[in-house]
Amino acid sequence: MESIAKIIGQRVAFGALTLWIVSLIIFAGVQLLPGDIATELLGQSATPETVAALRKSLGLDIPAYLRYFDWLRSILQGNFGTALANGRDIAELIEPRLFNTLLLAASAAVISVPLALIGGIVSALYRNTFIDRAINVVTLASISFPEFFVAYILILFLAVNAGILPSLSDVDQSTSALGRLTAMALPALTLAVVVLAHMLRMTRTSIVNLLGNQYIETARLKGLPEWRVLVRHALPNALGPIATVIVLNLAYLITGVVVVEVVFVYPGLGQLIVDSVQKRDIPVVQACSLIFAATYVLLNLTADVLSIVMNPRLMRPK
């Protein structure tokens, strides 16, 4: 147990270091954006005195490294600052958008994870047959298409031609639960299609790699049907790598929603960061970027810890 705690502690420390480096990159990247923030906000007709006053009020007249430490200290205290575009508190601005993004990612996971497990088991059960090859072709095709292409194909068939689902995901706090689910259907399907292939392939590979083990042969000699051998004996022992891949894809679902949210005009965190970039609302861009980075690092850390806990051989030196 001590070795497990030590390794997990090392992973947590490395995750914290990674997040700190990412915060440096985010701050430096925003500072390197072309143009002057004060001039962009006031317009080209602003006088130099007005621009100088705004720069002072925004703290742009102090060195960049001091601004970074002030920003980092505020973030650690839970204060994201104030949006430049509308003067609202950034935490209040982000809260409903983050909820929408997490709900969208959860909906996509509810669709993709069961399908990936079932598809992987079926592909392993009928390995090297037409069914297995057909599943491989479909998954390889889906993983090859970018998100916006999948989104537009689904819009064409399910929204334009069939008229089953809306092409725009316009939701707010007054939207009913049924209306929200209907509006989220197409973006959730898009994300599910994008991440489904990777999880399905890993499920198949993990199960097939275990089929030569002695306990699998023993189960077969007992006369158990092949599907029961896979589900009862192979799948539980393959859950380690499968769980790791699922968590990594959940990280992608949350951080990779920007394109999908823009295509469907879904009011999530990805749409907010795009709008804020267009408005040159730097504090909002920094806050959203840091939330995306923290979520990705946290879920990758979770996947790393799961791989250790579910596979003790990784903790033992060879």
Structure report:
InterPro entries: BPD_transp_1_N (IPR045621), MetI-like (IPR000515), MetI-like_sf (IPR035906). Keywords: Cell membrane, Membrane, Transmembrane, Transmembrane helix, Transport. The protein is mostly helical and 318 residues long. The protein has two domains: 2-76, no CATH class; 94-315, Orthogonal Bundle (MetI-like fold). The chain contains 14 helices and no strands. The longest helix is centred in the middle third of the chain and has 36 residues, at 90-125. The mean pLDDT is 85.
In brief, what are we looking at here?
It holds the Pfam family BPD_transp_1. This protein is mostly helical.
Key structural traits:
mainly alpha; 318 residues; MetI-like fold; globular
List the helices and strands and how they pair.
Blueprint: H1 2-31, H2 37-42, H3 48-57, H4 64-76, H5 90-125, H6 130-144, H7 147-161, H8 177-208, H9 214-221, H10 226-237, H11 239-255, H12 258-264, H13 269-279, H14 282-309
